[in-house]
Amino acid sequence: MQGDQKAVQHNYATPQNLAEAAQEIQQLISQLTQTYPTNTEIEKQTFVAQVDAEIKKNSRLRSILITGGIELIKVLCPPLGIPIEMGKKWLETANLSE
Fold first, then answer.
1. pTM over 0.70
2. Long-range CB pairs of 31-34, under 8 A, 24+ apart, other chains included
3. Cβ atoms of residues 46 and 54 within 8 Å
């Protein structure tokens, strides 16, 4: 057999992983609200900036939020589920051809 063989691995989160992820996010938010109060507009902006910084430096958290956001969109607007899945499949096949 000649040529390169490539495979796609699908990693779907289990309910336990989702619960752990939700707990991790809640802990982060709780920690940040203790460190950065949100009483004034400037404090709220600082808090949001800190959350953004944490998300940018934590790839696991970023992945969890992206996956959760996509699933939320699919729940809130079921007709979007089909184009979302089509886009995901397109990205997977595009990665295979690289």
1. no
2. none
3. no
